[in-house]
Amino acid sequence: MRKNSIKNTRINMEVQRELSEIIRSGIKDPRIHPMTSVVSVEVTPDLKYCKAYISVLGDGDARKSTMEGLKSAEGFVRRELARRVNLRNTPELKFILDQSIEYGVTMSHLIDEVTKDLHEEEEE
């Protein structure tokens, strides 16, 4: 099976949807920030491993504590994923902090500032 096959893409989407639901409502760990989202998921074609890219909207302490909470809840999340998604193998999860959304917001603010400065210079 190729890495970007239709079947693998569907599995990635299903695992991402279920992981989001498990993190949002299944985990009761207070370390996990409420504004935590699963950006993307990559399941290997043999269904043994899964990289879940996690975005946390908050400060550095919130990100760090959220990643610690997710790491400690890996077994529970994997068991819930096995119960919810019917796969031959339940992949071993690895949570990776993804800061691309935060980077995009920062760049958007910088672009807005520059365009605002340009408009002010044109008016003068």
N to C succession of SSEs: HEEHHEH
The CATH topology is given as: GMP Synthetase, Chain A, domain 3
Percent range for β-strand residues? 15-25%
What is Rg?
19 Å
> What structural class should be given to the helix and strand makeup?
alpha+beta
- Which CATH first-tier class would you pick? Alpha Beta
Shape: elongated
Biggest sheet features? 3 strands, mixed
Distance between the termini: 62 Å
The CATH architecture name reads 2-Layer Sandwich
- Uncertain runs are none
Strand order, sheet with most strands: 1-2-3
- Percent of residues in helices: 55-70%
The assembly state of the depicted protein chains is single chain
Number of helices: 4
Count of distinct strands: 3
The residue-averaged pLDDT reads 89
Structure description:
With 124 residues, this protein is α+β, with helices and mostly antiparallel strands. 56% of the residues lie in helices and 18% in strands. The chain has a single domain (6-99), classed as 2-Layer Sandwich (GMP Synthetase, Chain A, domain 3), CATH 3.30.300.20. The protein has helices spanning 6-26, 60-72, 74-84, 100-123, and strands at residues 36-43, 49-56, 92-97. Strands 1-2-3 form a 3-stranded mixed β-sheet, sandwiched between helices. A hairpin with a 5-residue loop joins strand 1 and strand 2. The protein is elongated, with a radius of gyration of 19 Å. The N and C termini lie far apart (62 Å).
What is the topology?
Elements: H1 6-26, E1 36-43, E2 49-56, H2 60-72, H3 74-84, E3 92-97, H4 100-123
Parallel strand pairs: 2-3
Antiparallel strand pairs: 1-2
